[in-house]
Design brief:
Elements lengths: L3 H20 L3 H26 L5 H31 L4 H5 L10
Length: about 110
């Protein structure tokens, strides 16, 4: 299989993920879009590893590390989303931006 086919698929997946992160306001959809972007990176790592044929499987090893980091990121992200939903009844990312507490200036 030529290298360009998995790379084109990875570009399409990454662009869909970027579009999802930039255009959506729902926190769950943003997390799913981030996962799509990480899967595109995994596809690139594995495709270049298969193309390079060095015998060390470094691309596949890095892909396993990316999957591990993605699982931790999703676990933490879903915990934050659940706390946001329990406390405020919505998972709107724009409204969550307004929840930041500002320090009172000491005068």
């Amino acid at each position: 299989m030529p290298l360009v086919l998995p790379l084109l698929l990875a570009v399409v997946l990454f662009c869909l993920g970027v579009y999802g992160v930039l255009s959506r306001r729902n926190a769950i959809t943003i997390l799913m879009s981030l996962e799509l972007m990480l899967n595109a990176v995994n596809l690139n790592l594995v495709a270049f590893d298969a193309w390079h044929l060095d015998g060390l499987a470094t691309g596949q090893t890095l892909a396993v590390f990316v999957i591990t980091v993605a699982a931790a990121e999703i676990g933490l992200g879903l915990a934050i989303v659940l706390l946001l939903f329990r406390g405020h009844g919505h998972v709107d990312a724009d409204a969550a931006r307004d929840l930041v507490e500002h320090e009172e200036s000491a005068t």
